[in-house]
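Private note to self, pasted from the team thread so I don't lose it. Backbone tokens:
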């Protein structure tokens, strides 16, 4: 029984992490070109990072959503 629980956990994690760093980077690049670099830096710091590659992959979806809403 314990093995089946572990398997289910492993199967659900990739679904949660379906957002890739490339997808986040694309949104961030778009906002950067729009002149929102300082807001992007603040957003990265909120996630405990000074650059995108330092962000925890588990936070990509939330980060991308917040980045998309920057104005």
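Design output:
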């Amino acid at each position: 029984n314990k093995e089946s629980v572990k398997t289910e956990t492993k199967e659900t994690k990739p679904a949660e992490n379906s957002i890739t760093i490339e997808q986040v980077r694309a949104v961030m690049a778009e906002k950067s070109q729009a002149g929102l670099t300082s807001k992007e830096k603040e957003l990265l710091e909120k996630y405990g990072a000074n650059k995108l590659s330092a962000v925890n992959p588990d936070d990509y979806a939330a980060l991308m959503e917040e980045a998309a809403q920057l104005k």
